[in-house]
Amino acid sequence: MEILYLRQALKDVNKVKNSKLKTKLAEIISDIKSANDLSEISSVKKISGHPEAYRIRIGDYRLGIFYSDEIVTVARFLKRNDIYKLFP
Q1: Which of 18, 25, 49, 50 is the least buried, fewest Cβ under 10 Å from its Cβ?
Q2: Are strands 53-58 and 71-79 parallel, antiparallel or unpaired?
């Protein structure tokens, strides 16, 4: 799958200081690139009320993504108590 990154997602990742979390995020991104469909990726859940919005759980953080036509757009990477306020 093709992956696009929104500017705000890159800013969110730069704010994170935990190197283990960044390593896990890199693993998830590589899993997304090699997957044929989102159902092949663990801990992906659809966000209700938004037809193209999904979230991936990474510890206490959530990766907010949009998925349409084999293109994944990484929108936000925030703590679990903040992601639902700012995404989608």
Answers
A1: 49
A2: unpaired
Per DSSP, the residues of 5-30 read E-HHHHHHHHH---HHHHHHHHHHHH
CA atoms within 13 A on the CB side of 67: 21
First to last CA, the chain: 21
Q: What order of strands is seen across the sheet that includes strand 71-79?
A: 2-5, 71-79, 61-68, 53-58, 44-46
Q: What is the pLDDT of residues 76-87, one digit of tens each?
A: 999 999 999 999
Give the mean pLDDT per block of 10 residues along the chain (88 residues). 96 96 96 92 92 95 95 96 93
pTM: 0.91
As a whole number of angstroms, the distance between CA 30 and CA 24 comes to 10
